[in-house]
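job 3f2a | input accepted
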Amino acid sequence: MDLKNTINNYLDFLKVQKNYSLHTIESYRKALSQFETFIIDEFGNEVDVQLLDTEDVRPFLGWLYDKDFKRNSLRQKISAVKSFFKYCVKKGLIEENIVSAISTPKREKKLPSYMMKNEVSELMDNFDDEDIIQLRNKALTELLYSSGLRISEALNLNVNELNLASKTIRVMGKGRKERIVPIGNQAILALKKYIERRSELLKDSSEKALFLTPKGKRLYQVAAYRFLNKSMKNVTECKQKSPHILRHSFATHLLDNGADIKSVGDMLGHASLSTTQIYTHLSIERLKEIYKMAHPHG
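job 3f2a | predicted structure (298 res):
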């Protein structure tokens, strides 16, 4: 069967039998249309799928690369082609999946956004220390930046897990792994001010949550995201304005100031150094920017 008709049958199969969404089917249609164009470019005409072999298909990746598709887009298109040939095997059109041996490009790692140090300072200065909600918000923000906690870790904290005297905090991270993280002086000051007035939000004396809503319940992630997103809009040009940006900023600023990568990884609760290394790459990119701006031949 010729390639074009086989592709159309496969797309019908995805729609009728697999019940794929219209968005997914359209994505597959575009990828396979590009594959068909590649085959015509290579052979000068349509071909029967039975006549194709691995070496006929392998250059498709380079063909896409030459058209400036990004790595994640390449992954999606190769995945669509692999799925198509898997279908051809299932339907008995070919004996083996000729693209199973073709490797899929690794997922492109996006460097995380982070705030500049002066932006963090401006963010902290914009909270009103007289208002209890603003006081709570500042304490949470300072803690996130000071200790690099995930927002879920910070909101799950109970009052008794803070040790302001030793300037540490006991955190239950992913996989129920516990770690001890240091707290900076600015965060300790903000937390002390908030804890002194936490009773203004407390409705039930048995509530142990550190950060409370106006109704006296544990603060939830959506509420934390909303106030941080709103607060960051006025001080930073980071595309992403969320609690996680403070975690990224914590790691980046530590590495920029000479902290060793293993210690930073331990504080972040990373299971392996490879996860932390993305922040090293971030710092290197920052150094390149500085070099380019400052060096006469940059």
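job 3f2a | The chain has a mean pLDDT of 85.
job 3f2a | closed
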